[in-house]
Design goal:
This protein has about 210 residues and is mostly beta strands. It has a five-stranded mixed beta sheet with strand order 1-2-3-17-16, with no helix packed on it. A hairpin with a 7-residue loop joins strand 14 and strand 15. The radius of gyration is 18 Å and the shape is globular.
Length: about 210
C-alpha cells in the first residue's frame, strides 16, 4: 500500500493551519478496493443557522430531554433517527408526530457520536468503542466491539453494502456486508479522523483535525 503526502501551510490572522493531503491506494486489500483521499476538515468555527432564521424554529415532539443529541439521520420522509449522550436513540416513524426515546441502548452509557443508514432498514450507530448494526430500522441492534480504537468519530455508507467508520487516532473500519462484520486498519497519521464521506462508491474523503 503506497502513501503519498504533501503538507501545505496557510497563514491566518490568529493562527497557522497545516493541511496534509493523503492519497492511499487500497487495491492490496481485497476487502476495500477503494481509493481514499484524506483531507483536512477546518473545524475551528462553529456552523451557525444562517439559512433559516432562529425565530422560525420551534420544539416539537419529543420535548427537550436530559440527553444531548449529537447526530441525526433522515431515512425517508416519515422516518428519522437521532442519537446522543447516554446511549440515547430517538426515533419517529410518522414524520415527527410521535417519537420513541430509548437510553442506555445495549447497556451502553457512552455517547453515540454518529448514525447513518444504507437502506430504509439497514443502519449503523457508533460510540467510543462500539459499532451498532440494525436491519429493522432501529427496532433492534447488534453490537460490534471496535478493538484497537481510541474513540469512533464518524461513519458512512459508500453503498448499501459497503460501510466505513473512522476513529480519533487514524483507525479505519470497513464492512462489505452492510455493517454485520468489520475489518480494521490504522492510517499512517497522528491526526484525529473526525469525518468520512464517499462522493462515489469508490472514492471517499476523510476529514482530520490538526491542533486546537
Amino acid at each position: 500500500m503506497g502513501v503519498k503526502s504533501n503538507v501545505v501551510t496557510y497563514g491566518c490572522p490568529k493562527r497557522f493551519i497545516s493541511i496534509r493531503f493523503f492519497a492511499l491506494e487500497m487495491k492490496r486489500i481485497p476487502l476495500m478496493k477503494h481509493t481514499i483521499i484524506v483531507l483536512l476538515s477546518l473545524v475551528a468555527s462553529t456552523l451557525s443557522a444562517q439559512f433559516v432564521p432562529y425565530a422560525e424554529w420551534e420544539y416539537l415532539n419529543p420535548l427537550p430531554q436530559a440527553a444531548t443529541l449529537l447526530s441525526v439521520k433522515m431515512i425517508d420522509t416519515n422516518t428519522y433517527i437521532a442519537v446522543g449522550e447516554g446511549g440515547t436513540v430517538v426515533r419517529t416513524y410518522d414524520d415527527g408526530v410521535t417519537w420513541k426515546v430509548e437510553s442506555k441502548v445495549k447497556n451502553i452509557l457512552k455517547p453515540f457520536t454518529c448514525v447513518d443508514f444504507g437502506s430504509p432498514s439497514t443502519g449503523l450507530i457508533a460510540s467510543d468503542d462500539y459499532i451498532l448494526f440494525t436491519n429493522d430500522t432501529g427496532n433492534t441492534w447488534k453490537t460490534h466491539f471496535a478493538e484497537g480504537t481510541y474513540g469512533l468519530a464518524a461513519l458512512t455508507y459508500a453503498t448499501p453494502s459497503r460501510a466505513f467508520c473512522v476513529g480519533k487516532r487514524g483507525e479505519v473500519y470497513a464492512s462489505i456486508d452492510s455493517g454485520k462484520t468489520w475489518t480494521f486498519q490504522r492510517l499512517d497519521t497522528s491526526d484525529r479522523l473526525i469525518s468520512v464521506h464517499f462522493v462515489t462508491p469508490k472514492v471517499g474523503l476523510i476529514g482530520t483535525y490538526i491542533g486546537g
